[in-house]
Design goal:
Shape of chain B: elongated
Low-confidence stretches of chain B: 1-8
Number of helices of chain A: 2
Number of strands of chain B: 10
Order of helices and strands of chain B: HEEEHEHEHEEHEEEH
Strand order of the largest sheet of chain B: 5-6-9-10
Radius of gyration of chain A: 24 Å
Largest sheet of chain A: 5 strands, antiparallel
Low-confidence stretches of chain A: none
Largest interface: A-B, 46 and 47 residues
Distance between the termini of chain A: 87 Å
Strand content of chain A: 25-35%
Number of strands of chain A: 11
Strand content of chain B: 5-15%
Oligomer: heterodimer
Distance between the termini of chain B: 69 Å
Number of domains of chain A: 1
Mean pLDDT of chain A: 82
Largest sheet of chain B: 4 strands, antiparallel
Structural class of chain B: alpha/beta
Chain lengths: 154, 353
């Protein structure tokens, strides 16, 4: 059949382009720091602190982004950043912020209104909630950790 | 090879093996359907390869214009310094922070430092319309996040609308606009936190470039801060180049931000409303979209909070260093490096990565 050589030709190029397109990209950028699962539990005066925002800001030789998490009703949080779940191993300054609405309920982030536009108030003292004045620190170990706990006092 | 003479007709030429005579003449060969399809497919593939490249070239042009704006502002900063022996402040007399707890300046001007750069950005006529003794906007309301839920206690200097300042700060200037940003360039008209004066209908024009400051909303935050964590700019500052001990090439003066912000609002170029303090490059990183709790659905193009640095350029955003150079910082730059580049007298070793 005379068509056959052309068909082979077309098939070859289609295959070549598919392979070229499929091969190049994918996988993780090796320049990005390694992140490991990290989390823990926050208590205030012994009771679990729910709805608090936990922020880990890298210090010293730590290579990686700021990681954050929100505590659940049991006070447990898990860190995440723009590079996915977890945090880079190393030393961190930590702030814990807890916003409460005027009626006493927890502030919950919604799609439309950020905390700056809500009437919520900070209830934790600056030694926990202020980035410059915080006394909290933490170290994320190389293998990750789920017990980066903070016991706060009012 | 003989020409196609008038005497030679279709079908009369000798039949060579594999060469049929056809409508084009003896020995001439047309295109088969498959050949046409192959050509069309190749053209299609080439166009498909080219189109994204064209879009990328357009974005590259916008990014270049954006960095050029920042360069112009950098030159204006240095001209201002040459004329007045110090850099302008990030802002003057913030109204939203004058709560009793904070014991703050009673005179409220709400002016943005970018206003003072207008004469150095070839905007002298606009600057002449601005009354420096009166406020740039009437915002006197903060959030209750830090303080009593009450109106601030400062004394508003004049009125932003009656003085004509409102008309100045609602003018959109191309030097403060990054062409890549497709968000709404104006602030809401009727917000007591972010507007010029509710009911006036004036909408403040936002800026894509703002001063490097700390992520704090208490009064006189710069003066209260430790010298090792201070940024070049803050409320009522007058930093000199001599104060930048880490080196002007290693200290960030200004950065790029986006119009669309989830928590709070992008700053106006003319005034400082609630949380419009500038950009803290050092603490939260570049191009952050997600917010813990609603992390499932971050939207590219909507920065997660006020005071954040970001852009719609792929992979990072621009910064202006205090020496006037403009750099593109990757969004994966380590947080510690950003902190070191933001402080002006931190004593750390850092350079643009």
């Amino acid at each position: 059949m005379k068509m056959l050589p052309y068909t082979k030709y077309v098939m070859f190029w289609v295959l070549a382009f598919t392979m070229a397109a499929g091969s190049g990209c994918g996988g993780r950028d090796p320049n990005l720091p390694r992140v490991v699962p990290a989390g823990g539990r926050v208590t205030l005066a012994g009771k679990p602190l729910s709805g608090a925002m936990v922020t880990f800001v890298p210090t010293g030789a730590t290579r990686g982004p700021v990681a954050e998490g929100r505590t659940d009703p049991q006070g447990r949080y898990e860190l995440a950043s723009q590079q996915g779940r977890g945090a880079a191993p190393g030393a961190y300054r930590v702030t814990i912020m807890k916003l409460v609405m005027p009626d006493g309920s927890d502030y919950t982030p919604e799609a439309g209104v950020g905390p700056a536009d809500s009437p919520a108030r900070q209830v934790l003292p600056p030694r926990y909630s202020d980035l410059q004045r915080t006394t909290l620190t933490a170290t994320v170990p190389e293998e990750g950790s789920s017990s980066l706990d903070f016991a706060l006092t009012p | 090879m003989g020409g196609i003479g008038p005497g030679i007709r279709r079908g009369m030429a000798p039949q060579l093996p594999g060469r049929r005579s056809n409508a084009f003449g003896p020995g001439l060969h047309g295109f088969t359907l498959v050949e046409l399809l192959v050509v069309i497919a190749i053209i299609g593939i080439l166009i498909a390869l080219l189109l994204p490249a064209v879009q990328a070239a357009r974005e590259a042009a916008r990014r270049m214009q954006c960095s050029n704006n920042l360069k112009q502002i950098g030159l204006a900063l240095h001209n201002y310094h040459a004329a007045l022996r110090s850099f302008p402040p990030a802002g003057i007399g913030y109204g939203w922070c004058t709560y009793p707890e904070q014991g703050a300046a009673p005179i409220v001007l709400n002016a943005n430092g970018l206003l003072m750069l207008l004469p150095y950005l070839e905007q002298q006529p606009l600057y002449d319309k601005y009354d420096r003794r009166q406020c740039a906007c009437n915002a006197m309301y903060g959030n209750t996040g830090c303080c009593s839920p009450c109106t601030a206690t400062g004394i508003l200097a004049g009125d932003a609308v009656a003085s004509g300042n409102g008309a100045v700060v609602s003018t959109r200037l191309s030097v403060f606009s990054c062409p890549s940003d497709n968000g709404d360039p104006y602030l809401p008209a009727d917000s007591p936190h972010y507007g010029i004066k509710p009911g006036s209908g004036l909408r403040g024009a936002k800026t894509n470039y703002d001063f490097s400051t700390s992520y704090r909303y208490d009064c006189r935050a710069w003066a209260k801060e430790s010298p090792t964590t201070r940024r070049i700019f803050g409320e009522d500052t007058g930093t000199r180049i001599a104060d930048i001990l880490d080196g002007t090439a290693n200290t960030i003066a200004m950065a790029e931000t986006l119009y669309d912000v989830y928590n709070g609002k992008c700053a106006a170029w003319g005034y400082r409303g609630w949380v419009m303090v500038g950009i803290d490059v050092g603490n939260y990183g570049i191009n952050r979209w997600e917010w813990p709790g609603i992390i499932a659905n971050p939207r590219r193009g909507q920065l997660r909070s006020w005071g954040h640095m970001g852009s719609l350029h792929p992979g990072g955003a621009h910064v202006l260093m205090a020496d006037g150079s403009v750099h593109f910082l990757s969004e994966n730059t380590d947080s510690v490096v950003l902190q070191r580049l933001s402080t002006m007298a931190g004593g750390e070793v850092a350079s643009i990565p």
